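Box S1 | Example of a co-folding query
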Amino acid sequence: MAKYVFVFGGVVSGLGKGIVAASLGRLLKLRGYKVQAQKFDPYLNIDPGTMNPTQHGEVFVTADGAETDLDLGHYERFIDENLTKYCNLTSGKALWRVLNNEREGKYLGKTVQIIPHVTNEIKDFISRNVKETKADVMITEIGGTVGDIEGQPFIEAIRQFMIEVGRENCVVIHVCLTPYISGSDEYKSKPVQHSVKELQSMGIAPDIVVTRSATDCGQEIRDKIAMFASIRRDCVISNTDVDCLYAAPVMLHENGLDKAVCRILGLKDECDLSEWNDMLARVRARDGKLKIAIVGKYVSLHDSYISIIEALQHASYTVGKNLDMLWVDSEKITAENVCKKLKDVDGVLVPGGFGERGIDGMIEAARYTRENKIPYFGICLGMQIAVIEYARDVAGIADACSGEFKEGSKVIDLMPDQKGLRLGGTMRLGAYPCIVKKDTRLYSAYGKEKISERHRHRYEFNNDYRETLENAGLVLAGTSPDGVIVEAVETKGDGYFVGVQFHPEFTSRPNRAGALFVSFLTAADNYSKEHGDIQK
Ligand code: GLN
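Box S1 (continued) | Returned holo structure for glutamine
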């Protein structure tokens, strides 16, 4: 019999509900339970796949090829379980299914309504996920804030679901902001009280309130929250700032979150945090700094690259250096200023992206790093940029371009099976195997011939130019098992100039850093040692 945890948010959004859900997932997994997590998003997009990253942050891709909310990335990194297409449900997707059913006559002439049709769809989604994954504990995070109109069908569905599976098998956590008023130097519990009431008025009484504040709000405030929420004192948990994201599970454990959850659900309450703490010790023992530039066009919102940032962090724990991240807007890079923009960096990473904007700056950055032997790591679009740059500047194909953005010699072009497809959900998505060529940087990074990484792209290396580019010295370090799709390129000799068509950031974990991120940072570390810079 599975147990269910529901995580709601109150007062404001952006409180790190996802980190609470993910941290709890880890703490339960450390007790030996099989934990899965899922996210409900109240917006109407079918999935975040077509959303602009600067609005909504990164699109996280699961191994089975679903384009999902970035919180799923936190779940995977913290819980270290692969999630599936059943792990992210938007209002749009629930409605879409209901409306399709209606058109197919599946409701046998009945009036189709939010309750029961949409709510049933939501309930089915939870059950299906538990059935597919055989989870002992299913953690469901509800996006947005309690009280939003769009979120109401989810709340109602969960209310019903809890009655059906037995309230004793469920725990409801409400994550709220407890604001600090600097004028009177005190924390205020009133917004939490109101938010709890709002949730209660929809038929769900939270069992645990997690109060978010920069520092501890104090026992007195927690007691007040407990009283007004009608919960035990030890069920009000402080969620304070931590020096490193991965310290959150330890902080929440110390504040009693997992203890309260286990007591309510009747789960065993012993967990060994020593391995996790060893990792945190490595995080804190890092010495010295590597300056890494991220050259992209969504740099105004760092969440657009959250998995890449995290993967770089994970690698930095292995390499033992702190990261100094430099965000460079590729639209502002020109041939004239590239050397100034990338001054003093130890490595340049060009991440994924879509469309024409900012491309020229990325190509300049690639050229500058290759010529100056500054480590370059291109991911997806970043790999395509590397190929275009190499084609133009080394292979002499002056008008080399991608079919996505310019007319010319398309060294990168649409995959045959992508022609004429509509935009949503139609890319090459999810995990595919890749065969790694021996004696390449890719091989030294992974240490094996067969790897599997996740994809999200429409364009690829154009095989018409394969011979020309190989003759010009470009190494095709990885291909699909049948040899047809080029998955990775690099240059020969010294210098680190590597591009991969896949997204290795999605499988990196804090205690098992992505192989290519480690090899990139190691190259950056070597570069930094060779070019010892007094300011650092
Ligand atoms: N826009 C490119 C493509 O569709 C790259 C995609 C990406 O970087 N994720 O192939």
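The pocket of glutamine is lined by residues 352-354, 380-381, 404, 456-459 (CB under 6 Å). The first helix runs from residue 17 to 29.
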